[in-house]
Amino acid sequence: MERSSKQPEDAPAGEAQGELSPRTVRALWWGSAGLVLGVVGTSVVVAGAEHGWRLPVAVVLVLVQACVLKWQASAPVPVLAVNAVTGLAVWSLLPEVSLTGALLAAQITLCVLSATRPRRVSVRALAALCLPAVAAFSGGGFTGLAVYLLTVVLAWTVGQWRRAQQARIRAEARRAVAEERARIAREVHDVVAHTLSVMVIQACAADDVFTERPDQARTALRAIEAGARSALGELRLLLRAFGPAAGGDGAGEPPDQVPSLARLDELVDTVRATGMNVQVHREDEQELPAAVDAAAYRIVQEALTNTLRHATGADAVSVHVTTAEECVKVTVVDNGRTKQGTSVMAGSGRGLVGMKERARLVGGSLRAGPLPGGGFEVSARLPVERVERVERAS
Hints:
Elements: H1 22-47, H2 54-68, H3 76-93, H4 99-102, H5 104-116, H6 119-130, H7 133-208, H8 214-242, H9 264-272, E1 277-283, H10 290-310, E2 316-323, E3 327-334, H11 350-361, E4 365-370, E5 376-383, H12 384-393
Parallel strand pairs: 1-2
Antiparallel strand pairs: 2-3, 3-5, 4-5
Helix pairs in contact: 1-2, 2-3, 3-5, 5-6, 5-7, 6-7, 7-8, 7-11, 8-12, 10-11
């Protein structure tokens, strides 16, 4: 799991689906509008100083370009059309401004369109924006033509690169979710197999004492009933969460290695062996459904692994596990430094994706991110009540 310099936030935002988040849209607008006003606006003011009425008209057209860029993420095709028309108008009013500069807003919009829309749409837009190349040739010769075509194609190519990058991130996240689901499926298989084995033993014991000791037989039968409900609840929860696409190959962990908070001290000892100072605080411990127990353990395990791998300068980490009747709260905080310059989207790191998938499958939630005063925090809330309802319904 890679660390992000962003503040803690919940599950993946809309950007993970190829769309831009509101924060990204605002930043894109301010940046592109500032670039258009700074480059094109300055060129227009300088070139139109002695052109009388043409200067204010050209300035208005540049302002229109900057304003419509606000909608370039949601409606890039109409915005591209507006910016192309106004850019050509600016160039016709002030030929001293190069066609490449006058159509800067249109090139920015083409880049956004190429990154966020299907390729067939962006290719058509690229072809349309190449049509004014004839005017670039008439105004600047072969040099003007080459510069114009180069900037237009470059804008489209940058958008395609960004689109490919986002597709790679989404594919990586889907692969991480699939791997985590397969591992969860194997763990649930191990838990259910263990429960069924115990039920067989209890059934044999009940049969042996059924006549001589009916009370003991009833106790064994009640234990069988409870075990069967628990096993069915685990299976139903798994099937509801995974659907037909779930699966995985390979055997699960040995019975004595099934993930559980009961093995938390063993996990912490392995981390302490690396020289890390680990403090563990546990409150109100109680027996948990196997799915929640495994999810809590795996979240702590992945968070500690993340600290060892990515927490620059970290030498201490605290683990808080609070168990109540309605939920389990897990918090892991280290004192490391988040690497600067990282801009990984929330949920893109494979470890973080896996932890969020763990929490989601049991109806919980997870937040992860750097703290204002330094350090990195992973906080999860896993409801016990939801899993118990599933078991009772079974």
